[in-house]
Design brief:
With 217 residues, this protein is mostly helical. It has helices spanning 2-23, 37-68, 72-77, 80-100, 105-121, 130-156, 161-201. The protein has one domain (33-186): Up-down Bundle (Growth Hormone, Chain: A), CATH 1.20.1250.20. The protein has seven helices and no strands.
């Protein structure tokens, strides 16, 4: 019931936003931006990247603590391979674009690498060595680094200077929406799966441990 109400509210708010943006003199997000194919593609890609990035950052440390017995500090340190590979890939991709002028292959390659990283992370098992997990996270960081700055560069090169700021901000706005969706979706799946596993694996005797025993006459 509540989910239906929330979804209906979101749809109505989106429709109202579009109607207002079409009529206002100085819209927050000019709708003519969506007539540009590059803007649409980079916006969708940025949204998906936000889902993958923040879904991983938000819940992988918790998973590492629960499944591998790492404490809060150790689980944070285990994320270094991803956060280290991300800026390295971003800087290297920027240098390649500056020298060659070619960038179309980078979002495609970055998206493929992110997909591979997500597939690898889906195979995580508590019996795995930690270095394998770090390698998977480094692959994720490599894919994210190839995508993030190049997508912004494509947007900025698709519009005149007078619209670059608006186009960049709009693209970042949808990336933040992706981050929110990623955190919400992954969090919901995490909590749901955790609940099912607890019910499945905990001894049945513990289910009524907190209840007072029935009195006998």
């Amino acid at each position: 019931m509540y989910r239906t109400v929330w979804i209906a509210g979101i749809v109505l708010a989106a429709v109202a936003f579009i109607l207002v943006e079409r009529r206002t003199v100085e819209p927050i997000i000019p709708l003519h931006l969506f007539k540009d194919l590059n803007f649409n593609l980079t916006t969708i890609a940025g949204l998906l990247i936000g889902v993958a990035m923040f879904g991983a950052i938000g819940y992988l440390p918790t998973y590492l603590q629960m499944a591998f017995g790492a404490n809060a500090t150790e689980s944070g340190l285990l994320m270094i391979p991803m956060m280290g590979a991300l800026p390295v890939a971003s800087v290297v991709s920027g240098q390649l674009v500056s020298r060659t002028g070619r960038y179309k292959w980078m979002p495609i390659a970055g998206g493929a690498i992110v997909a591979v990283a997500l597939a690898l992370l889906s195979t995580l098992d508590p019996a795995m060595p930690l270095w394998v997990i770090c390698a998977y996270l480094a692959v994720m960081g490599l894919g994210l680094g190839l995508n993030m700055q190049i997508l912004v560069l494509i947007v900025q090169n698709s519009f005149p200077l007078s619209q670059v700021g608006t186009a960049t901000a709009s693209n970042n706005f949808f990336r933040q929406i992706g981050a929110t969706l990623g955190s919400a979706v992954v969090g919901s799946l995490f909590a749901s799966r955790l609940r099912d596993l607890l019910i499945e694996r905990l001894p049945t005797s513990t289910a009524g441990a907190g209840r007072p025993a029935a009195r006998t006459r």
